[in-house]
Amino acid sequence: xxxxxxxxxxxxxxxxxxxxxxxxxxxxxxxxxxxxxxxxxxxxxxxxxxxxxxxxxxxxxxxxxxxxxxxxxxxxxxxxxxxxxxxxxxxxxxxxxxxxxxxxxxxxxxxxxxxxxxxxxxxxxxxxxxxxxxxxxxxxxxxxxxxxxxxxxxxxxxxxxxxxxxxxxxxxxxxxxxxxxxxxxxxxxxxxxxxxxxxxxxxxxxxxxxxxxxxx
Length: 216
Ligand code: GRF
What we know:
Blueprint: E1 2-3, E2 6-7, E3 16-22, H1 27-36, E4 43-50, H2 56-63, E5 68-70, H3 79-92, E6 97-100, H4 109-114, E7 119-123, H5 135-142, E8 146-153, E9 163-170, H6 177-200, E10 204-207, E11 210-213
Parallel strand pairs: 3-4, 3-6, 4-5, 6-7
Antiparallel strand pairs: 1-2, 7-8, 8-9, 10-11
Helix pairs in contact: 1-6, 5-6
The protein binds 5-O-phosphono-beta-D-ribofuranosylamine.
């Protein structure tokens, strides 16, 4: 059988093809990558793209021998031109799902329309609380007793899309913002891969604002 330009054995279950978009350190990317190497994983990372040439995550992707691209938003202007280049790379790699992992740009119409319902993000707070930048600092300063992280679909707002999964994290009396961030990050690393697996098990259905997770 000839599917997506490659010959596959009918017995072999094809894995979901994931793209990572990142701008920095890439610890979520690494966690996803390590999950993808497990036997039971139903997805693989086929390409990593960064808007920052020197992003640590991009270096790590190259060390893992993954396809890794820097796309310059400064050279490719306006934003539609930049995003068209990203779409071109995504299409060339037959990407099924785009995972934003510390990607410090607002996704524009071009990319959103091209991959509608197929772009997800991780955010270090329990949305809809504390969207935007420095979510952990915002939660810490607000004095919440519980915070956490959220994986959600992307829509036209900032951190407003339908929520897939969340994990809570306790805020302790003697926490610093740094310690809280670390505790949240540990949970981020677990839930992101879980959300990706659910996506490729075809268990996520978006109904209005809600994501219904079907039981196996
Ligand atoms: C994470 O806290 C993530 O929730 C947020 O940006 C940070 C990225 O960290 N969107 P890393 O680059 O994955 O280490």
